[in-house]
Each structure stands twice: as C-alpha cells, then as structure tokens.
Q: What sequence folds into this?
C-alpha cells in the first residue's frame, strides 16, 4: 500500500504534538466504538494527512453571489468537471495572470501547429486563453492563496462574423478551499498550493494545459478519484440540505463484482432519505444544545445512514450492497462519480463540496 | 455456541492442519492447491466460508492448528463476515493460532479506512496480518510460504518455538499516529 512520502520540510514535531493533544479533547464527545474497533481517523506526522476528517461541518448555504462574480459562478455550475490533484506550484503569482494567459495561448498555438510546414490559414487556430481570478471563494483567512483561477480557451471559427460570441471549447479551474493550515504554512517560500484542478472540454486541450503548467511551474498532475467514503459523505451532506433546497432524488449507482458485472441504480425518494437521515441524527441533536455542535456531522452518522439504505435494499432484494462498490452519487444538487467527475448544479453549496474535494486532493498528493 | 477449540483433540504425527476462512471462496482454493504440495510435513487444508463450522463433521475433523481469515479489501462484506466469524473461535486460538490475510490492498478503489479497521482488529487480537496478492500464481506461492512458516510453529513442529512466542514477534502493530485527529 502506498504511503505519502514525507518531504524534506517538516514542522517541528514537538509543537504539533502539543497541538494535537488539545485538539483531541474536542473530539472525545463524538467518540463511539464501532464493531469493536475505534472509528477515529488520524493524521500522519508528515505534511499531508492520511485520512479524511472524521467530523465535518454541515453544509451551509452560502449566499456567495454577493462575494463572487455571478458570471464566474454560472461557468462553474452545471458542467461536469474531471478532477485531478496538483502538487504545489513554484513561483505562481496572481499578479502575472495576463502574462500567463499570453504564454498559454502561444503554447497551445505552437503545439497545434507542430508538423505543419507553412501557415495555411491566417487565424484559423485562434485560441485565446484568459486567466481570471475568482475572488471571494477563499474560505479561511489563514490561506491567502485560496483563490480560483480560470483559464477559458475560446476558439474562433474560420468564417466567424465579427460579433459572434466566441465558443468556449475548454475551461478549467484551480482551487484550494479550506486547506489544511499546517500544511499550507509549512510550504517553503515561493510555493503556492492550489491542489484541486478541474477541467472540462477536449482531452487534448486538457493535456496541453497540464503540460504547460508542468513546464512553467514545476508541478505534477495526477488523476483524482473520489473514493467510496467521500461519495458517502457527499450523499449525506446533500441529503442534509433537503429542507433548504429540494433534492428531487437521491440516486446511487453500485456495481457488484459478479459475472457478468451487475450495476444497480438505487433511487431514493428525497423525503424518505431526509427522514432516515433525521432519525440517524436525532440522538445527536437531542444530546447537544449547542448550535455549533449541531452543525457538525460525524463519520459514524454517515456510515449509519448508508448502512440503513443498504439494509433496506437487502430486505427487498436479498442483495447485500456491501459486497459491491459505490460508483456514483447524484442528486439535484450535483453528481459525483468514482472516476473523479463532479458536477455541482447549485451554487449555494459549492464551498463545502469544494472543501471536501480539496481534502481529497491533499490526501492523494504524494508530497 | 459451537466454539472451535484448539486443544480438545490429540495432534497427529508430523501433521499440520490449517483452516482457511474466506467469504468469497476464491483465493483459498489456490492457496490450498499450493499448500498441499509441501513435502516435509503432512499438511491438511480445510476450507470454510464462515464460522461456525457444521456440527456434523465435528468428530471426523482433526485438530485445527492455524485459522486464517482471508479478507478481500475491495468488499466491505468480506471484512464484516470475517469479524462475525471471530465470535465462534475459542479464546485459546488467539494465543498465536489465528492469522489474518488481506488481498487487494493496493487497489486504488479501496478506502484507507477499511485497511485501518483491519489493522486495528488484528492489533487488538495480537495476531499477525499478512498481505497477499491473489491474481498471479506467484502471489499464491509466496503467501503459502509465509503461511507454512507460521503453521509449522503453530503445529508444534519447530523445536524451541511455540505459537505464542512467534505471535509476539509477528503480531500486527498500529502506527502511533493512527488515533490523531485530522484536519480541522
């Protein structure tokens, strides 16, 4: 099994040890032993954690249209993004975006023209790249670097009229939302960490953009799968928002390893899912009066929610879904696939969803 | 409850009996094929899907020296059924006569929490945790070699070494950071 390598720069172990002891006290309330083995999740003393959060703040509907340009938002939602992780970028400046966009357009044009001896048509491959910063999505004050950047590649068709809007053939973004503050502060000077990258459009262009980034900023890209636990988190977090915005359905796709492979689409009525979720959270909400505590969700509640769904399925079809894999979760608020594709349909919950994905990216990163 | 007891029967001469418990019933077959080829000791391999074992062959069953639980990490059901079977073992087995074997641990689709849960289970029971590769015949061969080492000690065929002593050396330990809280 692969473990993340500890890089050369480390936070001094003494201070982190002291920090962790005080942190562990706040988690004791949610400690519950499950199946004879403790269910707490932990962090390696390296720079990146090995496990996801065991408890998470509930999704709050952030009205982020005030802070964020609604055009940018409109571009982010309702598109399916393929995710990958990026290692920290060297010498990336937010002030140099114009220069980067020119360089990237030139790079893409050059790559496209490789192999063509003469320039046949004048501006046929009119790729124009624009980088822009999406202000307002930075979640914490600690990481001043948590900003979204968006290159969009437009292509001008050969016989376009002057006023025809340019069609965007590719777009992508890099982001870091609620990243681990210890990790971000321990990066050496000159490095910016934007661990999550999403791209949608032609695969050729995605690989061109990635290679440009690799050459310019000395970083590495890698595919990011949304693993089984994160998909369960997303299912629970989206169900939690049912009162505020209608889910319309909770659809899960499981694959069972039989011959031939069986794919099961399990659609749950949102009201029933909501009632099941509430019954799981009922004990938790009754015990704590504090508003803060009621806002956070534990991994055990998520597990129990999914276990409830699985046992209901078993009672009707005699098929135990634990033997299979959860491949896709989708609701009206968005859909997430195991292969790393995500679509957020509602801009209200973007921050929390992106937080979860940022954590996944930071976990998967080898540095 | 029909517990499987470790010392209720007499041992055979130069024999070792191993019980492979696996929910999917696949890897145990290939392991068994390689195990019986051992020549220095007479190895008897019993296969089971879960415990408890059926009462009917209780008389004819020899004394089981080593119980191996094989878990496929890509399915949660595998882990759950192995855990449920643990209840049917007499506590005497946990003094070095139980071993956990895990396959498919390098698969990217396996959530890390599952492997952690297996580790915690093995560590709490003081049992060794072995990783095996089930897709190639080489994987079965190397897993068999390691199992035979433990089996020979558990059957008492190695002088000056007992199962309890070996289990002290080979038992699964947890990394010290496994209980640390994670991101805030």
A:
């Amino acid at each position: 099994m692969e473990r993340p390598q500890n890089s050369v720069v480390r936070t001094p172990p003494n201070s982190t040890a002291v920090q962790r002891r005080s942190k562990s006290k706040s988690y004791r309330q949610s400690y519950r032993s499950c199946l004879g083995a403790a269910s707490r999740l932990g962090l390696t003393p390296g720079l990146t954690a090995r496990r996801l959060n065991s408890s998470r703040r509930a999704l709050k509907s952030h009205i982020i249209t005030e802070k964020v340009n609604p055009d940018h938002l409109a571009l982010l939602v309702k598109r399916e993004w393929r995710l990958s992780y990026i290692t920290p970028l060297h010498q990336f400046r937010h002030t140099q975006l114009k220069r980067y966009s020119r360089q990237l357009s030139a790079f893409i044009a050059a790559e496209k023209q490789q192999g063509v001896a003469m320039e046949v048509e004048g501006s046929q491959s009119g790729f124009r790249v624009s980088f822009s910063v999406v202000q307002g999505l930075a979640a914490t004050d600690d990481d001043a670097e948590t900003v979204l950047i968006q290159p969009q590649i437009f292509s001008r068709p050969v016989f376009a009229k002057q006023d025809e809007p340019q069609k965007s053939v590719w777009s992508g973004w890099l982001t870091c939302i609620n990243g681990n503050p210890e990790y971000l502060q321990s990066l050496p000077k000159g490095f910016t960490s934007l661990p999550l990258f999403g791209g949608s459009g032609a695969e050729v262009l995605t690989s061109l953009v990635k290679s440009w980034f690799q050459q310019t900023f000395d970083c590495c890209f890698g595919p990011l799968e949304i693993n089984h636990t994160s998909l369960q988190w997303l299912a629970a977090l989206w169900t939690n928002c049912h009162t505020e915005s209608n889910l319309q359905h909770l659809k899960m796709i499981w694959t069972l390893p039989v011959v031939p492979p069986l794919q099961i689409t399990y659609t749950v009525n949102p009201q029933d899912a909501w009632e099941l979720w509430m019954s799981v959270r009922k004990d938790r909400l009754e015990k704590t009066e504090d508003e803060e505590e009621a806002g956070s969700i534990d991994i055990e509640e998520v597990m129990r929610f999914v276990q409830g769904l699985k046992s209901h399925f078993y009672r009707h079809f005699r098929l135990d879904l634990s033997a299979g894999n959860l491949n896709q979760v989708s609701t009206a608020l968005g859909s997430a696939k195991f292969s790393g594709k995500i679509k957020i349909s509602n801009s209200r919950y973007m921050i929390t969803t992106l937080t979860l994905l940022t954590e996944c990216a930071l976990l998967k990163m080898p540095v | 409850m029909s517990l499987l007891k470790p010392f209720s029967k007499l041992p055979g001469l130069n024999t070792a009996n191993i019980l492979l418990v696996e929910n999917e019933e696949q890897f145990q077959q290939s392991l068994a094929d390689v195990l019986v080829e051992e020549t220095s000791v007479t190895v008897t391999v019993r296969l089971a899907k879960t415990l408890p074992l059926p009462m009917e062959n209780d008389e004819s069953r020899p004394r089981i020296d080593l119980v191996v639980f094989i878990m496929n990490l890509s399915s949660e059901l595998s882990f759950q059924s192995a855990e449920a079977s643990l209840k049917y073992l007499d506590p005497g087995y946990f003094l070095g006569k139980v071993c956990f074997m895990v396959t498919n641990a390098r698969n990217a689709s396996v959530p890390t929490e599952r492997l952690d849960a297996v580790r915690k289970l093995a560590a709490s029971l003081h049992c060794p945790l072995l990783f095996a590769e089930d897709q190639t015949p080489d994987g079965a061969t190397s897993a068999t070699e390691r199992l035979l080492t433990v089996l020979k000690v558990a059957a008492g065929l190695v002088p000056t070494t007992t199962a309890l002593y070996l289990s002290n050396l080979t038992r699964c330990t947890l990394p010290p950071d496994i209980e640390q809280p994670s991101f805030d």
The CA atoms of residues 13 and 19 of chain A lie 10 Å apart. The interface with chain B takes residues 1-2, 20, 23-24, 27, 35-38, 40-45, 49-54, 180-181, 225, 227-229, 257, 320, 322-325, 338, 359 of chain A (CB under 8 Å).
